Amino acid sequence: MKQLWKDFMNGIITENAVLKLMIGLCPVLAVSTTVMNGIGMGFATTFVLLGSNLTIALIRNIVPKEIRIPIFIIVIATFVIITDLSMAAYFPGLHKALGIFIPLIVVNCIIMGRAEAFASRNTLIRSIADGLGMGIGFILILILLSGARELLGKGTILGVSLPFDGFEPALIMILPPGAFFAIGIMIAIFNNLFKLKSNGGHKHGSS
């Protein structure tokens, strides 16, 4: 149980895909103009990540090593197609807003990275914990980033205007430069925060 909790928290903090490993940044920066887009992309990616981790963990012992990458891509693409068609059917507005970035989940470094580095080498239960942790970590960062950009760039949250008189949105925050600016600040805060906690723990232990 302790190992499963460690695998789960690994994706949220220790190896957070966006703020720590800095992979999968393209969709994060592109779709995080509104909270709804961020939530949609986060859950879509998590579904694919969890489904591919689960499937690859199940078939890992029967997949020849020589062709494992093509097979992993087929598995991932299957879950992406399910996600794409489901969103088009039930959330057409969100599907249209996310556009090409839904099909591009197939080549997201986070998905393939976890398939190769974790799911193909560990048990089903551990792969599920890893997929959930990585997915939730990804969702949280998308919500924080898109929330900050929508709030500062449009003066709204989930499309609801703020009840503050005289607030002037900064248009740059919903443009590409604003995305880089915001993610840079988040990475700096995240790394410094956990660096301080780590250093505090070492000092406490040495004393």
From TrEMBL:
<keyword id="KW-0472">Membrane</keyword>
<keyword id="KW-1133">Transmembrane helix</keyword>
<comment type="similarity">
    <text>Belongs to the NqrDE/RnfAE family.</text>
</comment>
<feature type="transmembrane region" description="Helical">
    <location>
        <begin position="169"/>
        <end position="194"/>
    </location>
</feature>
<feature type="transmembrane region" description="Helical">
    <location>
        <begin position="71"/>
        <end position="91"/>
    </location>
</feature>
<dbReference type="Pfam" id="PF02508">
    <property type="entry name" value="Rnf-Nqr"/>
</dbReference>
<dbReference type="InterPro" id="IPR003667">
    <property type="entry name" value="NqrDE/RnfAE"/>
</dbReference>
<dbReference type="GO" id="GO:0022900">
    <property type="term" value="P:electron transport chain"/>
</dbReference>
<keyword id="KW-0813">Transport</keyword>
<comment type="subunit">
    <text>The complex is composed of six subunits: RnfA, RnfB, RnfC, RnfD, RnfE and RnfG.</text>
</comment>
<keyword id="KW-1003">Cell membrane</keyword>
<keyword id="KW-0812">Transmembrane</keyword>
<comment type="function">
    <text>Part of a membrane-bound complex that couples electron transfer with translocation of ions across the membrane.</text>
</comment>
<feature type="transmembrane region" description="Helical">
    <location>
        <begin position="97"/>
        <end position="115"/>
    </location>
</feature>
<protein>
    <recommendedName>
        <fullName>Ion-translocating oxidoreductase complex subunit E</fullName>
        <ecNumber>7.-.-.-</ecNumber>
    </recommendedName>
</protein>
<feature type="transmembrane region" description="Helical">
    <location>
        <begin position="12"/>
        <end position="32"/>
    </location>
</feature>
<dbReference type="InterPro" id="IPR010968">
    <property type="entry name" value="RnfE"/>
</dbReference>
<keyword id="KW-0249">Electron transport</keyword>
<feature type="transmembrane region" description="Helical">
    <location>
        <begin position="127"/>
        <end position="149"/>
    </location>
</feature>
<feature type="transmembrane region" description="Helical">
    <location>
        <begin position="38"/>
        <end position="59"/>
    </location>
</feature>
<dbReference type="GO" id="GO:0012505">
    <property type="term" value="C:endomembrane system"/>
</dbReference>
<dbReference type="GO" id="GO:0005886">
    <property type="term" value="C:plasma membrane"/>
</dbReference>
<keyword id="KW-1278">Translocase</keyword>
